[in-house]
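Work Package 4 report. The design task specified in the project plan requires that, given a folded chain encoded as structure tokens, an amino acid be chosen for each position. We show below one input record used in the internal validation round.
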């Protein structure tokens, strides 16, 4: 008997296990199909490496930041200049000064507002007055008492009353305010002229005494009663 002949013989089950065991992780699971293996979490493709978070830009040193400008403040007292050709009343200046102070406007900003807004307001007022005067003129032209076809004749009657009782100051007032075209002013003068006229059919613009004008032209020449009487 040869020495150690049986001592080195391997265990049959151990030999089989060493040959058939798959070279995989102990966590590998075998499903029902022969030789097919289902990878576990350890054998799955590892996730992509996350990108490192972008570094937050470092704040600039305080020395590099521009210094904040000091906001302009309202002065102790405003000195406003009216746009050329205009004037401010004390009441208007007081009201505007109060608003500018409350808004803490500087002298430059407050003056710029006046220079920009005042002419626009004045122009709007002029246009409004023109529209009002036109309304008065249109109403006088078609007035049932003194307007219509006999408008020029009746304006001559009104002019007679103005010549008799009016003053230069009244004429200026009627011209500058446009009230010379107001239907009620003309009505008053017309009735007064009829009361003092020997002939209520006084005609203006007769040939040889004056140049006749259309009724509308007479009405638009400042004061309608300024037509040359016959």
């Amino acid at each position: 008997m040869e020495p150690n002949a049986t001592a080195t013989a391997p265990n049959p089950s151990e030999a089989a296990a060493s040959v058939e065991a798959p070279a995989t992780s102990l966590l590998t699971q075998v499903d029902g199909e022969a030789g097919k293996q289902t990878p576990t979490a350890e054998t799955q493709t590892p996730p992509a490496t996350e990108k490192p978070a972008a570094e937050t830009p470092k704040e600039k040193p305080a020395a590099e930041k521009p210094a904040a400008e000091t906001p302009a403040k309202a002065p102790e007292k405003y000195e406003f200049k009216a746009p050329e050709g205009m004037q401010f009343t004390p009441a208007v200046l007081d009201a505007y000064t109060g608003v500018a102070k409350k808004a803490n406007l500087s002298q430059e900003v407050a003056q710029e507002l006046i220079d920009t807004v005042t002419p626009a307001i004045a122009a709007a007022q002029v246009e409004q007055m023109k529209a009002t005067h036109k309304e008065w003129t249109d109403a006088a032209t078609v007035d049932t008492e003194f307007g219509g076809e006999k408008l020029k004749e009746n304006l001559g009657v009104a002019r007679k009353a103005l010549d008799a009782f009016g003053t230069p100051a009244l004429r200026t007032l009627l011209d500058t305010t446009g009230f010379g075209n107001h239907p009620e002013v003309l009505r008053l003068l017309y009735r007064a002229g009829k009361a003092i006229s020997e002939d209520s059919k006084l005609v203006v613009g007769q040939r040889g005494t004056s140049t006749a004008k259309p009724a509308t032209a007479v009405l638009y020449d400042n004061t309608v009663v300024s037509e040359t009487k016959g």
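Residues 142-226 form one domain. Validation will be extended to a larger panel in the next phase.
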